Fold this sequence. Notes:
Domain GIY-YIG: 15-93
GO cellular component, one term: cytoplasm
Number of strands: 19
Subcellular location: Cytoplasm
Keywords: Cytoplasm, DNA damage, DNA excision, DNA repair, Excision nuclease, SOS response
Family: Belongs to the UvrC family.
Distance between the termini: 73 Å
Amino acid sequence: MSEIPLNIQLSSLPTSPGVYQFYDSNDGILYVGKAKNLKKRVSSYFNKNHEYGKTRVLVKKISSIKHIVVPTESDALLLENNLIKELRPRYNVLLKDDKSYPWLCLKNERFPRFFPTRRVIKDGSEYYGPYTSMKTVRILLDLIKSVYPLRTCNYDLSAEKINAGKYKVCLEYHLGNCKGPCEGHQTFAEYDRQIEDIRQIVKGNFKSSITYFKGQMKMLAAEMRFEEAQKIKDKIDVLKNYQVKSTIVNPKISNVDVFSIISDNSFAYINFLQLAHGSIIRSHTMEIKKKLEEQDEDLLELAIVEIRERFKSDSKELYVPFKLAVSTGLKVTIPKLGDKKRILDLSERNAKFFRQERFNQIKIIDPDRHTNRIMAQMKKDIRLSAEPRHIECFDNSNIQGSNPVAACVVFKDGKPSKKEYRHYNIKTVTGPDDFASMEEVVYRRYKRLQEEMQPLPQLIVIDGGKGQLSSALKSLDILGLRGKIAIIGIAKRLEEIYFPEDSIPLYLDKKSESLKIIQFLRNEAHRFGITFHRNKRSKGAINSELEGIDGVGEKTAQQLLKKFKSVKRVKEATIESLSQEVGASKAKKIYESFRKE
Length: 597
């Protein structure tokens, strides 16, 4: 990305949460940071004078910016921690030590303990988290312990030792914080049921616990113990807001390489996420220019070999979106749901963001390439025989048949050509008949273009469904243009795209650039037509107020408006100034008519 100027890199950053990485001209890592809004945060480095000299020096050295998009701000915090420890950037200090975010550990033992830890040990224990705050961990532990009394001692509570009476209950038992499994006062089956409930809580299933706390809160409130009730309410709020799932750190997923691909007619974008010890430690997106019509499978297979070699990855498992032929010794997983699918989705999301950034950068650096790509994509998406370099869109406007008008807007290379916009007064239709109005305006537009030997569009877009499309086709038939110009209709309700003689509509992806251009055309035609219709209606209302006066016709009304600019000024005019325009006789009638009012 370093070949792209820094200001263009900044302008194309997404506004999503994520982690940004600053690199110098030698591609050395300078700094890793997190952001709730990547574009806003990164831009702030370049938009203000910094108080600290270290920051000023950092900004001067920045040559390129990379980033990883994540779902939430908490995920950004965790990923920042991982990357700082892995990459050890020169200008990061705070997180270079071995301190990690806290986890909750369900110890792999008989009568398991449940406690916070910062170390994940592979001993068969279950780990939940990580959490971005130890306060959250403590509150959650307090909540669990207030509902389910658990042991805190580290005794080996084997059946033999309990039966032998080796242990005695401690103070925790007498305080009611433990039910005394060490002396056999609580059975293993009963304790295990508690543990299963706790698993549900830390996984985010709080329904039973929240119900219990609500009961406690109401009971305390009824007994006028409001301070205690408020504490319970705070705990309920924490439970409701608590989120345990983290895509960034997951101890269930160890050393894995994740690959995803997004492609169009000309380019493919492959994202690579590297996970080590359950944490994302690297993200890289590669752009590949297609030479022929290569399949995504072939491109991804080639990219996997190159990327793994470049980053010297020795992971034995790959997560990919579809079946691939890879070298022996590698396990290929195609995730369908759960944590693995979330990791793959995150990779795909970063590929999509990278693709969009490249599009935005190309718009600035190489607008012709951007236009060519859009036109090629539209040709493919709308099944055209030629690229739609010249598109025209039609829309009708009327209110219960009054002042019927139509608008035609023209786009060249995907952009409005406003000087070629045209509006039409409907001449042959009476009453609210959109179909007949569409037939008339399409006929008039292309009859004139034929007569004047003007170039015809490659695509006509009709604002409306099958009815309006059929009406427009009638005019093309009369003019002998059927089959020479592609024509489609777009219905507003679900954005269905209709083709001639095809009852089944086409639904384009809501994020498709082809659909966005068609929607832009439709909205422009509607705006242009509505503006003309309002002006005509307003003008008609003004004229009718003047023409209602005895002896004042359309010409006289126009003459007065041209001179006085508005009906209000005509009303306020003196009889002498009116006489200068329309003569003494008419001036007297106009003057007296308004005075009677």
